[in-house]
Prior knowledge:
By secondary structure, the chain is mainly alpha-helical. The chain is built from 20 helices and four strands. It has a domain at 294-500.
Amino acid sequence: MIRFVNPTLDYALLAPILIVLGGALLGVLVEAFGPRASRAASQLFITLATLVLSLASLIKVRGRSSAAAAMESVTFDGAGVLLQGSILIISIIAVFLLADQENFTALAAALPGSDEERTSLQQDLKVTEVYPLTLFAVAGMLLFPVATDLVTLFVALEMLSLPLYLLAGLSRRRRLMSQEAALKYFLLGAFASAFFLMGVAYLYGYSASVTFAGIHSAVIGGTGNDIYLLLGIAFLSIGLLFKVGAVPFHAWSPDVYQGAPTAVTAFMAAATKVAAFGAMLRIYYVSFAEAYWQWRPAIIAIALITMVFGSLVAIAQRDVKRMLAYSSIAHAGFLLAGVVALNKSGLNASIFYLFAYGVATVGAFGIVTLVRDSAGEVTDLNRWSGLGKRSPWVATAFAGFLLAFAGIPLTSGFIGKFSIFSAAYESGSTAILITGVLSSAIAAFFYIRVIVLMFFKDPVEDGTSVVIPSIYTQITITISAVVTFALGIYPTPLINFIQSSAAFLR
């Protein structure tokens, strides 16, 4: 006889996720029934209010730990709350960039170059669906790092991915490139999801459980078939490594980063990385910790290749968005050092690095939206020549973000890289330490090359100009710059907070 078990839900702990889902549903209703004239302002208000309210709710429940927030499917602990807080703060900063409607097409359903598209542009229509789609993605991101069973993890993965597939195809200009990016992202994402589900099947076959705790117990007991365990870890890792853009699962990153609206690229590059690495840290630190020697060599090899490949290929890029895409691939390699470390220092360093890198990334892409000509954004690096003479403040801000990516002292990037390489060294991973330092030196070359291009070359009179940023873009860039340098100059409060709070419940 099958017994029905009443679900036990802790709504106070689940409130941050539920609030975001509620805001997304409210946005859908506004999109369906709200007056078109005020829809953009209403959606922006709902989105920001939802994210701020969710963050306030998260602060309220901080300090409470529970393995039964939603049966054994969701666990709230110190590390999970820190990762959720990082996602919400980055999302709030990114939403101000999304609010600049110049980034998005006037009518998503219109064929590129059609009369319908030209009419919609003349009527100055606004695609405000981006706001509820963003909130649905954020809800998935919030669930991803706190999910503690494989089914919930897969649901969260799809919840965060599907809206991003749509958002990637909404660019106002270069529509065909944007739609191509969305299609590539969707197809490769579906392919990675299939691998993820294969991993779930093998791990269930190994442990007769889909919960992280059940898999952990099976690994300790050693009663299952080790071949199933290895195949499960391999296939599951492919799905997760795709989301973080690690080599050789990185192929989507450059094309999607280049083709998607720049505001969406900023949100996707920053917040998705926090969520994906959060989930990866939890599953490796909780479920696979005792199977360390089975997966460690493969992850170390992927980390080394990702660092070197991302740094070397970025040198050859002449498009600023593709350059930042390969830079993000290299940073994924650096972050894998925190996974390999498998110690408290690695967890602390990964959380700090994810937040610091995410904020700087949003700011850097915010700068990219300001360099334009009559056809829209200018991403050809050759046309950024002399930008420092055209607009010193914009060039200085972009240089600051590039220095943070390079890990130069007095920026958050230096503290992040120092912490994560120290954790890798502490765990005995000297190969990652040496390769990481050398890759950082290579990466510094192409970052500094762009700075030299902006400040020490003469401007080319080709119609390129720096537009006056809207108040929303100003907020994004200002907050990102302040946080980037504040965490580089005085990171102690945040580091101490992470050290005292970050932990996984088993």
